[in-house]
Write a structure and sequence with these properties.
The protein is an alpha+beta fold. 21% of the residues lie in helices and 33% in strands. A hairpin with a 4-residue loop joins strand 4 and strand 5. Helix 1 packs parallel to helix 2 and helix 2 packs parallel to helix 3. The termini are far apart.
């Protein structure tokens, strides 16, 4: 049930570890989170994954490697029902954590960008490619109310923008062998107003805004 507050608490822990490392005899040590996940395969685990992946982005100076678990699980197993990949002898379905992690990975970039302003409950991270031509704004709204977002891009108006959103509507929503794509990214509306992008983050949703940036942004 810590899908909203858990990632932020974990991030504070990373920062505390980073502070201890910085004053230690080995200040160049980095952290490997060898196992992370939530204990479900409903949408809560997707919200948790999105929030924690953003925390990893923001704490990349401390956490340089992280690995999720449980990775694979046969649907007949009697315990540990939190796997990313769930299967029987014929087929498989992705849990929400897999759906979110793939969406985040499909929009990966190595350079973290500072975000300024009032996040109003959003857990967000922004990254850009080495050449600066692409920017990805990854955000999760774990709350029960929609959030209207106005995202200003410094340096000029974006050339293009796309919004991919995962918003199943209910915390209990889940994929199954019968409905393997019930929880999946779908295109959503994003409006461009000069250098400002406007879009809505529905309650308990996660998504990525991908934009082609002007050269000097």
């Amino acid at each position: 049930n810590a899908y909203a507050r858990g990632p932020l608490a974990y991030e504070r822990h990373f920062r505390e570890l980073g502070g201890l490392i910085a004053v230690s005899r080995n200040p160049k040590i980095k952290v490997f989170v060898s196992e992370w996940n939530a204990q479900s395969t409903d949408w809560r685990t997707g919200l948790y994954a999105a929030g924690l992946l953003n925390a990893f982005e923001r704490a990349g100076d401390v956490v340089t490697m992280a690995s999720p678990a449980l990775w694979l699980r046969h649907v007949s197993a009697t315990a540990w029902d939190n796997a990313f990949i769930n299967f029987d002898h014929c087929t498989w379905f992705p849990a929400p954590n897999y759906v979110v992690m793939k969406l985040w990975r499909d929009h990966a970039a190595p350079n973290l960008i500072a975000i300024e302003g009032d996040a109003k409950g959003l857990n967000a991270a922004a990254v850009k490619t080495d050449d600066g031509s692409r920017i990805f704004f990854k955000a999760v709204n774990p709350g029960a109310e929609a959030i209207e977002v106005a995202l200003s891009v410094k340096g000029g108006a974006p050339d293009a923008a796309e919004f991919l959103l995962v918003a199943p509507g209910e915390l209990s929503a889940r994929n199954t062998l019968e409905e393997p794509s019930k929880i999946a990214p779908a295109p959503a509306e994003v409006r461009r107003d000069g250098n400002v992008l406007r879009f809505t983050k529905p309650p308990r949703s996660a998504g990525v805004v991908a934009l082609s940036a002007p050269a000097n942004s």
